[in-house]
Amino acid sequence: MKKKIQPKRKSTHAAKSILRLPDLEVAKNAVINSLSCRDAQRGYRHAIDEFVEWYCSEPRLSFSKTVVIRYRMHLESRHLAPGTINLRLGAVRRLACEAADCGLLSADLAAGIRRVKGVKKLGVRLGNWLTPEQAKSLWQAPDVERLKGKRDRALLSILVACGLRRHEAAQLTVDHLQQREGHWAIVDLAGKGGHIRTIPVPDWVYNAANDWMQAAAIKTGRLFRKVSTADIHDKSMSREKTILLARIGERARRMMAKFPSSQFVPLGDDSCCSQNQTSICCLQLLRAVTED
To answer: Model-level pTM greater than 0.70?
Structure first.
């Protein structure tokens, strides 16, 4: 006898249109786990947390295109830069996609959220550049009579002239500094997104780094390391301390690609000086850090 084919039962679990805090947390974890770069994870986590805080601040009808458009209007009312707004909206779109893949959100609602347009970028923003005198004061602020001052001056010179990111400066090793065709360079540096690049190093920058390496007797391993209060060289420098110092030159790297390497000369030279976007308040921050 032929078996009767029973009709398939319809799933009783339906996708939601209103997401509660536990659902949003599950979707956020799915977004974070899909990213491999730590910087991207930190940025998406911050953007999603801000959206969740706004979304849960008052009752919402549903997590839909209309709500995301209202969130974009909220960001615009805070006078944020278009790039910042588009970054936040990108995190919200990815949150909706992961929520739909997890069965927490309707696919139609997720598709509508993906269609929310970002903000147009009009014009070019002008950065707050340091004058040659301010740049010279920034670079010469650390006391080179102390071991910590030699380290800080070498770190600042590499950040300003080579435009390294914070995590790149924290992971820089002695083996990265090599000569190519008679010139010093940072070779095969793994940066954001796993990109490998080689960065030319001016002679005055290498001299500052070489003074630090000779004073600290560094031959292999990490270039920037911890120094005790008694100026005794320690084995390693914490990533947090390196990032704290590297925040001073973080904005400088954003303008480095717009200027040829020939413009980067010793900051004490009157002929020209490296132009960067480092904020003037960095001078006060540097002095506060070096006095610790």
So the answer is: no
